[in-house]
């Protein structure tokens, strides 16, 4: 990735629905250049997909939690791949210390969250988990 790719990714992070022509103007390059770079970044797996951000108080979020995950052996890449494909996993973070990963989870109800947590605990090489349900969020 060069500086134009990094700037393009930053603009897409801010708003993935920005029209290609607007991106081209902001980057000072041709529209075709932006389209080709986006395609290349998608093909290389740099851009994995596009998403939306919801307000923290949006009612659709239901139950939110942070799950700390311990992984057996050297299987972190396999576990991250499995979590990345899970529809209720919002974000995955690597960390140091006792836990190998932190996963942000969302479900519509507590019963649904129980199913989500059980499905995550059944992923091969997940050795242990500890979950904290998020009750309130305060923006700084």
TrEMBL record:
PROSITE patterns: HTH_ASNC_2. The keyword Hydrolase does not apply. Keywords: DNA-binding, Transcription, Transcription regulation. Pfam families: AsnC_trans_reg, HTH_AsnC-type. Residues 1-64 form the HTH asnC-type domain. This is Lrp/AsnC family transcriptional regulator. The lineage of its organism: Bacteria, Pseudomonadati, Pseudomonadota, Gammaproteobacteria, Pseudomonadales.
């Amino acid at each position: 990735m060069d500086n134009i790719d990094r700037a393009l990714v930053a603009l897409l992070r801010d708003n993935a629905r920005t029209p290609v022509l607007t991106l081209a103007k902001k980057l000072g390059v041709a529209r075709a250049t932006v389209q080709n770079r986006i395609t290349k970044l998608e093909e290389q797996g740099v851009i994995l997909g596009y998403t939306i951000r919801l307000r923290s108080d949006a009612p659709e979020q239901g139950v939110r939690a942070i799950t700390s995950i311990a992984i057996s052996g050297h299987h972190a890449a396999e576990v991250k791949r499995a979590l990345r494909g899970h529809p209720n996993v919002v974000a995955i973070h690597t960390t140091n210390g006792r836990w190998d990963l932190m996963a942000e989870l969302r479900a519509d109800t507590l019963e649904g969250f129980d199913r989500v947590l059980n499905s995550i605990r059944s992923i091969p090489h997940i050795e242990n988990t500890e979950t904290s349900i998020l009750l309130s969020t305060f923006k700084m």
